[in-house]
Amino acid sequence: MQAYPSSPSNRTQLELFRSVPGAIAPRDAQDLMAWPFFxxxxxRRTKPIDFQMGNVTILxxxxxxxxxxxxWDADILIWAASQIVEARDRGRATSRxxxxxxxxxxxxxxxxxxxxxxxxxxxxxxRLQSTSVxxxxxxxxxxxxxRFSWINEWQERLDSNGRPMGIxxxxxxxFYAAVIDQSLVLTIDRAYFSLTGGLERWLYRIVRKHGGRQxxxxxxxxxxxxxxxxxxxxxxxxxxxxxxxxxxxxxxGYRLTIEGSFGHERLSFVATEPDLYDLALRRIGTRAxxxxxxxxx
Length: 297
Fold this sequence. Notes:
It is built from 10 helices and 13 strands.
C-alpha cells in the first residue's frame, strides 16, 4: 500500500470537509454515468480508453503498477458525490479535501469491513489516484482538454501513537464542479452496489442517466452502446452479454428489451418504478401553481 504525501500548495487553499455520518442517499455524477471513464473488467487493464464522439473526447490512461481505475473503484466517487450533495443540502460547507474513515466508505458501498476489504479499498484509492484522464467535456473551447486524476492525492491519518484515525483525500476540481452543480447529479438505487458484473454496472448507470425520467423510456443501438462503453470485448461478445442481462432483468428499477431488425440490435429500457425525485419536483411545481392561483387578485 502506498499513501501519497500531502501537497502544501493544495492543503493551504482547501478547508477540510469531514464526512457526513449516518445513512445518506447515493448520488452519481451524470458525466461519469454517460461516458467511458472506467475499466469494466475485473482483471487489470492498462490499454487506454481513447474515445471520441462528436465534440466529446476522452483519454483514460493507466500505469502498469496499478492498472486503470475500474467501475468498482468508482464506488468511492459515488460515495464522495453523495457526501458533497448531502452536506450542501444541509447547509454545510463542502470542500475537495475530505476526511473520513475506510469503514464509512465500505459500509456505504455495501462492502465488508475485514482487513482484506480495507486493503482492497486502499488499492482502489491507488488506482483512482494513478489513472490519468483528459477530456473535452465541460470545456468552453472544444479543442481544450482538462487533465486530472480521479483523486489528486490521499493519505492515512494517524494519531500521536501511530494508530490509524482514518483517511484524507483530495478530489479533482473537474469532478467537484460537476457534483456541486445539482443539475449534474442523479440519485441512484442502492441496489446498484449489489450488481456484480462490470458491464451490468455500467449499463445501469447509462440507463439511469438517459431513462430515469422518460415516461416512454429510451433506447440505444447496441453498436452505439458498445462504442460508449469503452469495453475491450468485441461487439459480438458485448451484444451477447447485453442479451444475457436483459434476460435476467437484473437492473433495479428498469425493464430491458432487445429487438433486432435488418441485422441490427437495439436495447430499449423503461422505468418500472416512479422517479421519486421527479415526483417531488412535480409536487413542488403543482403547489407553486396552486399558490399562484390562490393569490390572484
